[in-house]
Specification:
It is built from ten helices and six strands; from the N terminus they run H-E-H-E-H-E-H-H-E-H-H-E-H-E-H-H. It is an alpha/beta fold and about 220 residues long. Helix 2 links the parallel strand 1 and strand 2. Bound molecules: adenosine-5'-triphosphate. Adenosine-5'-triphosphate binds next to strand 1, helix 2, strand 4, helix 6 and helix 9.
């Protein structure tokens, strides 16, 4: 049928992170985006320990295991171990080159929180990233667009699009999502886990992830 030959490939949506551990601040906004855009999948991709940040407390395999457990919340969530499989830190620009090679004609949406967006010009080859993917920026409590550095503010002015325009090309736009904010960070969760070693529920942490954390004795100290 000609329709299947000419159909646009499904968009690729990707949220990278340390996920130390994964929490609902990662999951709830991306599911809202999947509802809005009709995405059938969102890739959640744990990074190999990033060079510019303190090392994660959980191992690579433990962070991946927690992502897999959290993905059981919704069949659209996919644990993606691409960066971990590289066996060394992989920069986002290289990951996106790989995605592009695999899916040359797809729209690629790289999702990040506002905290990451404010620092985006410190990312390796950030301008190239914008040629490889759209950026989808999630609001995050405590991080304001007003703090954007001038060179990125200029890019935003040039590249910002509303949702209906986002898929008219495969890459190059910036979309400021209006998903409900989720006031949580992995840092705050690690502290809470250490301070409440007996808590059977922790808000905004998937119960299966909490059970994994307890059974592997993770996040027991507040250092
Ligand atoms: P940490 O507290 O250890 O820095 P984190 O909670 O920011 O961790 P990461 O794994 O570093 O989690 O985040 C991965 C991506 O998800 C980043 O782009 C980050 O901006 C985004 N993100 C994390 N938490 C939220 C949140 N509550 N709301 C919106 N975006 C978030």
């Amino acid at each position: 049928m000609t329709s299947s030959l000419t159909a646009k490939p499904a968009p690729i949506a990707l949220l990278g992170g340390t996920f130390d551990p994964i929490h609902q601040g990662h999951i709830e906004p991306v599911l809202k985006l999947a509802d809005t855009f009709g995405w059938s999948h969102v890739h959640l991709q744990p990074c190999f320990a990033p060079p510019h940040r303190p090392q994660p407390e959980a191992s690579d395999q433990q962070r991946l295991a927690m992502v897999k457990l959290a993905c059981q919340q919704d069949s659209r969530l996919l644990a993606d171990d691409f960066e971990l499989r590289q066996g060394k830190p992989t920069r986002t620009v290289n990951t996106l080159h790989h995605v592009r090679q695999q899916h040359p004609d797809a729209s690629v949406c790289f999702i990040m929180g506002m905290d990451s967006f404010l620092q985006f010009t410190s990312w390796l080859n950030w301008q190239q990233i914008l040629e490889l993917a759209h950026l989808v920026v999630l609001p995050r409590p405590g991080y304001q667009l007003a703090e954007l550095p001038p060179d990125l503010a200029a890019e935003l002015k040039r590249r910002q699009r509303v949702d209906s325009e986002l898929f008219s090309q495969g890459a190059g736009f910036i979309y400021l999502a209006e998903t409900p904010t989720v006031d949580i960070s992995a840092t705050a969760l690690r502290r809470q886990l250490a301070q409440s070693p007996d808590a059977s529920r922790i808000p905004l942490l998937d119960p299966a992830v909490l059970a994994y954390i307890r059974s592997h004795n993770l996040y027991q100290s507040t250092h």
